[in-house]
Amino acid sequence: MNTDEINNIYEELDSLMNSLIPNESKANNLRKFFEKVLKLYLGYKLENKINLFKMIDEYVLKSQRFDLQNASHQLRDDLNTWSHATSYELKDSILDNYYDRLQNIIKEVTGMTYEKISNRSHLFSIDKLSLNDEQKKAALSKSKLTLVNAGPGTGKTYLIVGRILNELSSNNNKKIFGLSFTNKASEELQHKLNNQIFSTSLIENKENIFTGTLHSFALKFIQDYFEFKNKTFDFIIIDDLELKDIESEFNNDEESINHYIKENKILTFDMIIAMFLNTIKNNTNFQEFLSEKLDEIVVDEAQDLDKLQYEILYLLYKHISHLKLFFVGDPRQNIYAFKGGSLNNIRLFSEETDVSFIELIYSYRCPQAILSFVNEFKFKDNNNIKLVDAYNKTNGYLSLQALDNKEDEANWISKLIVDKKGNNVKLSDIAIIYTSTFYFKEILEALNAFQIPFKVFGGQWVLDNNIRLFRFILSFIYTSNKYALKNIQKFWINCELDGKNIDEILIPLSDMDFTNKANYEKLQLVLKFIQEEQIKKNTVIDILDHYISLIKKKSIFFDKDIEMLDNLKDIILNDLTLDYYDNLKLSFSPMHPKLNIFYTRSDEIVESEWFDNDEPFVNVTTVHSAKGLEWSNVIIPGMAQDSFPRYFTDNESREKEMPNELKKFYVACTRSKENLYLTRPKEVTVKSKKNGQYYTFSRNISIFINKL
User: Residue 349: pLDDT above 60?
Assistant: First the structure.
């Protein structure tokens, strides 16, 4: 691309925006300009018809500008709306947003601006976010410590976006971290930030904004500090199931387990927090290092952080004099108490005086019928701030249905869904929510009988063995970690060969007769592959591409296993932030919106007979997996005593756990944007573990709804 070509594009864009053609046509032409810029950059002829989606990904791979992938695809999706005839009108403000975003993307792609272009404002203004008075008050808070009580649907993500961008616009040099409780919430925050950043001059300072979880935040700074001190960070991160394998191997002997973990440089997510905490407590150099990297931390879902996580934030606050902390949480939605999560942990800051406390009361999700119901809940450890429907919707519906037994309950739910589908309600806008997966059996069988596709979220999951193997291969390529090497060997030959490194292990393999020892030969191939990749120092996608080529050429795996790896490649290509090893290893989770396809259930759950990934399906989910999500139609089954709330063996456990059960019910109810259906069986039949006999018991209505 040369200067004249870029100047011509800018001039044509300026002429387009000043023309008198309809806004809808302007938007369609903006898309064509987007295509033209990428064709010029990638060396394609302008007359060639090339898919914009593919060109964006090709550009990102070629330029290694992974930060532009999501913003570019978001703009492509928005402009696609106007590439076909539509009855909708495009407002000037939205068109200007498209134009600003495209202009900034062109600037990032080409590295060039055009001074003669019409003077259009790119300054960020918090007024553009249409925050209500309390949201705006929170976003503009000058206090060092700000705590926002944000109930369900009160627009906390938009508030956080406003807070981060307003702070950055007040001082472009500020380094601000937005921390979320889950990877999914973090991605959502990043997407919404991008949508605003790329329409303003703040794009110049976007590198000053970091989003992630507290675990990724802690890991990033530990790794950055290792690099700063010219040390190698060669730890491997494992999940809970892999930790259980280690514990079983050493018969749960704590001393042996700790020695093995330390010797093999293994980290779990909890160990990442402990490592960061230990370092900031005992290392003044680390404290000074951090003080230059942090100006403000914005924490979402603050009620779910445990004591150690709060201690990290407290120590950062104490050691960095200029640091601001901005907490957004809701004690009513604290459903991770079993992990130590609680907004009460913020008492560490009880002596602070420069504090602001703001309550958000307007819900942009739930209709008043549902809000009036949950507003009456009585919580033992916190106030229940009354929420108000911001839109004053009149279409909300709350119902309670009593059925004779669980089979009748399941059939009623299935018929309701069939009826909804017949009235053009999308299956994807329907959710069945319960506290755990054990209650779903009859419901899932009924959904199958009524030919309703569904997908179950929550419960116990196991990562596919071949994907797990590739994770260990990546880990060893990047860190040479001994635990990774051990598991690569165990995958193929279920034992370890003598040798401290690959070179030593390959010695006996080089002289071995592989007759009737095919897996030893495959191990040799994989170890040699690892050696080659360590020399090349490729990215994840290149390593994966070479790995797939190897296993195809040598017939190492079956076709279904290769297909699984091809799927992983597609996922990384569609989100090239995962092409960074550190991002990928922290993203593997059954809750990840894409990587979850590599997990299979370890608990007994009825499979959907009608599920198709490309078609809408009913969400059947636990409360914990439903957190942060919303649907127009929510169904909560099992609203009977000893089901929801669950059965307690004694009064002490009932007294302790009942508040947590109520919070789970609060979260489940407030997932609904329109209709909430509560169902209960009058009796249940259970099978005795002692004699195998079936017994039927009557069930009283749940105390949570006995006033309905």
Answer: yes
